[in-house]
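Practice problem: predict the structure.
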Amino acid sequence: MKGYRYLKDATTLELREPLCIGCGRCIEVCPHQVFRLSEKKAAVADRDACMECGACARNCPVNAITVDAGVGCASGLINEWLQERKLRIPGGGCCS
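Answer:
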């Protein structure tokens, strides 16, 4: 799903770097490579790639990440991607 974008500068994603322990879990679970490791801590590499699915926040062991999961309509982006690849029938709707 590389290359998909939501709205520029609209994500609710917040990373509190002082709390980060550098475990890398956010990097592992993010489907859009929003994070990278920098000086042994997570950093936001591509904020506008965030589709607000919430995987990073749910998997952060120290709650260094917050995001309003669902507001970016991750299911809508996923459905669009599936339709382009003819893996889903159009008209499936968004966020249902």
